[in-house]
Amino acid sequence: MRLKAALVALFAYIAVNVDATIYFKEQFLDGDDWTSRWLESKHKSDYGLWKLSAGKFYGDAVADKGLQTSQDAHFYALSARFEPFSNEGKPLVVQFTVKHEQKIDCGGGYIKIFPADLDQKDMHGDSQYYIMFGPDICGYSTKKVHVIFNYKGQNHLIKKDIKCKDDELTHLYTLILNPDQTYEVRIDNEKVESGSLEDDWDMLPPKKIKDPEAKKPSDWDDRAKIDDPDDSKPENWDKPETIPDPDAKKPVDWDEDMDGEWEPPMITNPEYKGEWKPKQIDNSNYKGVWVHPEIDNPEYNHDSTMYKFDNIGVLGLDLWQVKSGTIFDNFLITNDVKEAEEFGKETWGVTKGPEKKMKEEQEDIERKLREEEEKNKKADAEDEEEDNEEDDEAEDEAEEGEQKEEETKEDAEGKHKDEL
């Protein structure tokens, strides 16, 4: 029985791995040859330039090289083509790494998946895509992961707010779209959100709507509390909110001809009680909150193929950045979640630790340099202060010498006068 179970498990493993397909993979391990696989759009003449770089800090100088934005305040438009496929009946897994080492203030870090009939040379912001996925940061208010699906020609944004990473390190972003209409978003190989297409996007009309024929009955009382009919306002309740200040006196120099008739200033009336309201009691006729009855929405039709894209064939980077320096790497499109997990571990998983260490070492060196610079500035300031003090002492001594010389001269003149 154990042997049979082991064989079943083995065959299942082989079957899963045989079915696994990698549609697109890009790690930029062959230097500048990437330019033969990626095409820049010519829709605009001033798109930002890309360069191959591992950045200022990295875990591996070669493995961490990716496409980096290089010009501030520019749009970028670059794409790569692969053999077209359909995700019908299979999971679709889209994965990549992104590093905002420039302390990004406003810019995209997302990718787009296009149909194979995209004209890459004319790709631009309004080009119709299938999927838009990845981080987007702008100021303090926007730090989210976009998950946008195109359904019947319309782009639909996810209704949930998924927070992205906003530090300077490399992070792994994974989108899993399943044929059962469910999805999952992972950051750094950990699930951060999941659900269903029908619940988390407004692709379909709602299943239920309020019955247009139903109306709240005219005698429906939904007041839980009512005014006590036996409660009445006290006779001495009404008092003005402000009164003339009884302690105020007309100034002695008040001239009514010039200043007009004098009136005392107004003050808050200590006897003012505010607006009177009868006390509240339970409503004996209360029927509860009326709930509008719902009916099946005649415009709703279930669609079990919302997840499906028939002609996937291009991955594009179509974005805007105020401050450049973002690095994209380790692109993967597959139908196998385990394959994506392992690829993430073999790439980002291996270099994330050394990258963080290198960054911390650089920060430590920069901190020490700043401290040394501050120390030198302080020493220079102290030296300058000492020099000024020495100059002041020399000036004082010179003044004292001049004063003594003057006094000596005066004494000599006095003696000379005495002798005469």
Describe the structure in your own words.
Belongs to the calreticulin family. Residues 208-253, 353-380, 411-420 have a biased composition (Basic and acidic residues). Keywords: Calcium, Chaperone, Disulfide bond, Endoplasmic reticulum, Lectin, Metal-binding, Repeat, Signal, Zinc. Residues 1-20 form the signal peptide. It is a single chain. The chain is an alpha+beta fold. It has a domain at 22-205 and 305-366: Jelly Rolls (Sandwich). It has five helices and 22 strands. The protein has helices at 2-19, 197-200, 256-259, 337-346, 348-419; strands at residues 22-26, 38-40, 50-53, 66-69, 74-85, 92-100, 106-108, 111-115, 131-138, 142-151, 154-157, 170-177, 182-187, 190-196, 208-210, 225-227, 242-244, 266-268, 280-282, 294-296, 312-321, 326-334. Strands 1, 3, 4, 6, 12, 13, 14 and 22 form an eight-stranded antiparallel beta sheet that branches. It is flat. The relative contact order is 0.20. Residues 1-17 have low confidence and may be disordered.
Class per helix and strand makeup: alpha+beta
CATH architectural type of the domain at 22-205 and 305-366: Sandwich
Work out the strand percent.
Answer: 25-35%
The biggest beta sheet is recorded as: 8 strands, antiparallel
Family: Belongs to the calreticulin family.
GO molecular function: calcium ion binding; carbohydrate binding; unfolded protein binding
Region (Disordered): 194-260, 343-420
Biased composition (Basic and acidic residues): 208-253, 353-380, 411-420
